[in-house]
Sequence to fold (145 residues):
Amino acid sequence: MAERMVFEDRDRFLEALRRRVREGLPGERIRVITPFGVPEVEEILSPGRSNVRFFALVGAACGTAAGFALTILTSLSWPLIVGGKPVVSFPPFIIIAFALTILFGALSTFAGFLLLSRLPSLRGIRSEEEHGNAFVILVEDGERR
Fold:
């Protein structure tokens, strides 16, 4: 069961949030619901660097490898010798590898974003009950759901 604190005043909300963080409560266990964007929350919770960048790196590397593998294996399967040039020639393959690098990197970044933010989940997007114009601090239990 999550601990819920509801505030009508923005300053009292920010003070309570700072106090919870000072007490040593990890930011991953705190969930905040506000009626509008409050930039101080981002500073107080300081989520750190996201792990989405690892998804982008792995996806881009896989895209590069897939691009070169696709073009080289296609050229070797259907060799077309034109003007005495080698069958496997890297300069024209770079264009395909670059395109697949961008495509795979973008798709894996999007998939990583969805995975790390636990989407699609209506529970994560919208609270179970409406809080109106109140500022809410939810402290989740020790285990993550």
Observations:
- The longest helix spans residues 90-116.
